[in-house]
Design a protein that fits this description.
This protein has helices at about 5-10, 45-55, 60-65, 65-75, 80-85, 95-105, 105-110, 125-145, 190-205, 235-250; strands at about 1-5, 25-30, 150-155, 165, 170-175, 175-180, 215-220, 225-230. Helix 9 (about 190-205) links the parallel strand 6 (about 175-180) and strand 7 (about 215-220). It has 10 helices and 8 strands. It folds into 2 domains: about 1-30 and about 150-250, no CATH class; about 45-125, no CATH class. By secondary structure, it is of the alpha/beta class.
């Protein structure tokens, strides 16, 4: 059995992908801010910090927003340090952002194992990096003010899993759209669009009635400050049937 992302890695997609990213509508948002070109910590840490801080500022409890980090810290036997970092996160001041960047360093323990853990003391974002995180979190909050509100945060798909795909969870659901947040310098790929379609189909089969009104899939990239959206009706029934049966296992 696979997670959604693991399953996608095993799939050879047709030319352009099951859903070509080029067919998504594009909304470029201009907030008048430019990101600093220099960042001194890994992009994956920045992406996680932006994601989790956004959830916290949208109203999630810190322990929920940084849930994976806390579980990783527990596995690394560093809960005292994790609690200290968590209590240091109070908003978007420098210390809060610095603590968030360190705290997400524990994610790798949960996701990949202790073998890949190098400690969080070496994660020290400089002022340029901290400012980039602050800008991207503010962009994310502005995005949800325009496209929200969020009605499901980190939805799982109980009732929609199969003997092939047994785990996986989405990012956000608003009234009529399933969203994925990608903090990346690159445009969406066909792996990203297939992931979203799988989440949508699994959501429709799940126990969550909130998916009954979902009509669109979308990606928000706060690094590029671009919103990508697609109405499900623009996807052929052949593609939906093929992904449902051959990839997910319905």
């Amino acid at each position: 059995m696979y997670s959604v992302t693991q399953r996608i890695k095993t799939i050879k997609q047709p030319r352009g992908g099951y859903i070509n990213p080029k067919i998504f509508g594009v909304d470029r948002i201009n907030d008048g801010k430019l990101l600093n070109e220099s960042e001194n910590i890994h992009a994956s840490l920045i992406g996680l910090a932006v994601d989790y801080l956004t959830r916290a500022l949208l109203g999630s409890e810190l322990t929920d927003a940084f849930r994976i980090s806390i579980m990783g810290a527990h596995s690394a036997d560093e809960m005292e340090n994790a609690k200290y970092l968590l209590l240091s996160i109070k908003g978007l001041d420098n210390e809060s952002i610095r603590s968030a960047c360190k705290l997400v360093g524990y994610d790798v323990v949960f996701r990949a194992g202790k073998t890949f853990f190098r400690g969080v003391d070496i994660i020290n974002p400089d002022e340029l990096t901290i400012e980039n995180v602050r800008i991207m979190v503010n962009r994310s909050i502005a995005f949800f003010e325009k496209y929200g509100p969020v009605i499901l945060d980190s939805p799982t798909f109980e009732g929609g899993y199969t003997d092939i795909v047994s785990t996986g969870d989405g990012d956000f659901v608003t009234r009529d759209t399933l969203w994925d947040m990608k903090v990346s310098k690159n445009k969406p790929t066909n792996k990203h669009t297939l992931q979203l379609l799988m989440y949508y189909l699994m959501g429709k089969k799940s126990i969550h009635s909130d998916f009954d009104l979902v009509r669109n899939i979308g990606i928000f990239n706060p690094r590029l400050n671009i919103v990508y959206t697609l109405n499900i009706n623009q996807i052929s029934t052949d593609i939906i049937e093929k992904v449902s049966k051959e990839i997910i296992g319905y």
